Amino acid sequence: MQCRSECGACCIAPSITSPLPGMPHGKPAGMPCAQLLPDMRCAVFGKPERPIFCGGLQPSADMCGADRHAALLWLTQLDAATAPHPL
């Protein structure tokens, strides 16, 4: 499956705890990545500096849904479900 054009959900919804270019401390969920271009594409896609986390996200029918809104919702729920909870 190919990424939907002008989506960027995977660069906004999930939190990233590892450093990435322009965001040395990672990024919180819901914040656009510093590498998200105006056309909602990733500036470091396919480059060595792309975080391993990002490379692990592969577009799928479940994750991407019918539209950008569905993708944002699915990824937001996944991030919340997998976030570490304080003791």
Features:
mainly alpha, 0% strand, 87 residues, 3 helices, globular
Structural class: mainly alpha
The percent range for helix content is: 25-40%
Q: What characterizes the major β-sheet?
A: none
Shape: globular
Cα distance, first to last residue? Answer: 39 Å
Q: Uncertain segments of ≥5 residues (pLDDT<50)?
A: none
What is the N-to-C succession of helices and strands? HHH
Can you count the beta strands? Answer: 0
The structural domain count equals 1
What is the gyration radius calculated from CA atoms?
Answer: 12 Å
Overall mean confidence score, pLDDT? 92
Tell me the fraction of residues in β-strands, as a range.
under 5%
Per DSSP, the total helix count is 3
How is this structure best described in words?
With 87 residues, the chain is mostly helical. It has one domain (9-81). The protein is built from three helices and no strands. It is globular, with a radius of gyration of 12 Å. The model has no long low-confidence stretch (mean pLDDT 92).
Give a quick rundown of the structure:
The chain has 87 residues and is mainly α. Helices cover 28% and strands 0% of the residues.
List the helices and strands and how they pair.
Layout: H1 52-56, H2 61-64, H3 68-82
